[in-house]
Amino acid sequence: MKRIHRLLYPPAWSIAAKVSAALLAAALIPMSFNAYYNLQESIEGAVESEYRQLELLSTSIASRLDQLIINLQPVVVQVSTEPSVVSFLSLTATEQQKGNNVAIQQTLDNIFRSNPDYDAVYVMNQKGRCLAASDPTFIGQNYSFQEYFQAAIQGNPYVSSILIGTTSSRPGIYFSHPVRSEEGKIIGVAVLKIQGDQIWTIVNTMQGDSQSSPFLVDRLGVIIAHQDPSFLYHSLTHLSKKTQQQIAKDRRYGQQQIESLDLPKLAAAMVRAEATGHASYYSPADEQTQQMVGFTPLTEQPWVLGVYKPKSQFVSSLITMIWRQSRSLILVGAIAIILALLLAQSIARPIRELTEVSQALEKDSFAYDKLTKFARSRDDIGQLMRVFINMAREIEVREQKLKQQVVQLNFEIDEVKKERQVAAVTGTEYFQQLKQKAQRLRKRSPVSRHNEAEYYQQLQQKAQRIKAVRSRGAEKN
Question: Can you give the pTM of this predicted structure?
Fold first, then answer.
């Protein structure tokens, strides 16, 4: 228990432990903060670099799509200005019904056959009825409800999203342009439909690697191109009721209801974006996987091309980077630990020897020769040892002198005590009386001294007789 308490209580640590801990803290703490800061900077830089790569890829694909749209717009303009088309739509309805459409049909067929990516070429009158088309199934159909007709009949060129054809049920992009008479009056609408597969091919074949996936959303946030067909014609976020009703009315996506992917954060960043950017989101289907997205808006259409990549695939490179930083930190830390222990030992060992010598010095054991090897050092420890050795030698000399002084002092004290005792005895009244008696005895005559000797002899004989009587009494008993 005491060992645990000592281990958990730093003030109770040995000097070696304290020095080691201090040196390790001084070496590892700043280095750890520096490594953490550098690692964070590296991670942020790597993340920004990855986002930049996704943005560049989305920009490249968006540029391809813009170029495709730019290349196709003159074609529909050409159709709308063809003399046969203008002449046919300038006829009255009765004249058109007489079958006077051979020239316009040949013109539409020639244009259709000029590019395998064209799905259909057709013209409509002012009421939206198809009068001539490269696909006979279009003739006689009324497309006045379609947005591409409504825009063109008002005199505005139009490019649609990737829509599902109401007649052919094939996906495609509709390019429409007003047809004007020689007087400049709008007499109909020319339409060029290209295959939706063409857009999907451009999007899907422009993948930077197998990990990234491009997709295209229109101005409503509906996915109109994706390598996974299950995502087609799903909105990034919930559409309003009014928008859903309009979609159902014009049947633009071939569905009555557009399901939402419930990605409001991604929709807020991408839909109708005006500049290249990036975002991240968690898919509702997999909330544990974060997706990184780079996106670029098209210049010719209100579409946004996005390229996403699971962050988990990118994190693998980050983990490699973290391990590299960790190995460096561990290596430097190990070196710091070894140096700290060696330095702590070089400091603690002389102090430990000094402590033992100090304890021996308290018991009058002058074993300071153990410190001689440390005193050779030129550092502070060596200076301390030299000062201590000199001090110990002075103490030893002083102690010898002190012992001699104590012996002399004890002798002097004994003499003084004797004098005091003699003075104390001779100074009493009784001693003075004895002294006086002794003086009187010295003054007596020899005869008196003889009488006294006889007196003492008589007393001794009397004592012996008493002793003999007592001995006989004891034998009788």
Answer: 0.61
Question: What is the tens place of the pLDDT at every residue in 249-271?
Answer: 877 787 788 899 889 999 999 99
Please report the sign of the dihedral spanned by the C-alpha atoms of residue 274, residue 275, residue 279, residue 281: positive
Residue with tokens 């014009």: 250
Q: What is the mean pLDDT of residues 444-471?
A: 63
What does the pLDDT average to over 89-110?
80
Sort strands 286-297 and 130-133 into parallel, antiparallel or unpaired: unpaired
CB atoms within 10 A of CB 313: 15
Give how far Cα 234 sits from Cα of 26, 176, 283, Å.
Answer: 58, 25, 14
pLDDT of residue 297: 94
Nearest to 261 by CA among 240, 239, 278: 239
Dihedral sign for Cα atoms in the order 55, 61, 64, 69: negative
Cβ–Cβ < 8 Å for 319, 326: no
| Residues 116 and 124 sit within 8 Å (Cβ to Cβ) | no
- Please count the other Cβ atoms lying within 10 Å of the Cβ belonging to residue 123: 27
Closest residue by Cα to residue 251 from 145, 174, 150: 145
Gap between the terminal Cα atoms of the chain: 80
User: Which one, of 41, 40, 18, 32, lies nearest residue 333 by Cα?
Assistant: 32
Q: What is the 3-state secondary structure (H, E, C) of the chain?
A: CHHHHHHHCHHHCCHHHHHHHHHHHHHHHHHHHHHHHHHHHHHHHHHHHHHHHHHHHHHHHHHHHHHHHHHHHHHHHHHHHCHHHHHHHHCCHHHHHCCCCHHHHHHHHHHHHCCCCEEEEEEECCCCEEEEECCHHHCCCECCCCHHHHHHHCCCCEEEEEEECCCCCCEEEEEEEEEECCCCCEEEEEEEEEEHHHHHHHHHHCCCCCCCEEEEECCCCEEEEECCHHHCCCECCCCCHHHHHHHHHHCCCCCCCCCECCCHHHHHHHCCCCCCEEEEEEECCEEEEEEEEEEEECCCCCCEEEEEEEHHHHHHHHHHHHHHHHHHHHHHHHHHHHHHHHHHHHHHHHHHHHHHHHHHHHCCCCCHHHHHHHHCCCCHHHHHHHHHHHHHHHHHHHHHHHHHHHHHHHHHHHHHHHHHHHHHHHCCHHHHHHHHHHHHHHHCCHHHHHHHHHHHHHHHHHHHHHHHHHHHHHHHC
What's the rounded Cα separation, in Å, for the pair 20 and 341? 6
Is 50 exceeded by the pLDDT of residue 447?
no
Question: What's the CA gap between 17 and 28, in Å, rounded?
Answer: 16
> Would you say 149 and 166 are in contact if contact means Cβ atoms under 8 Å apart?
no
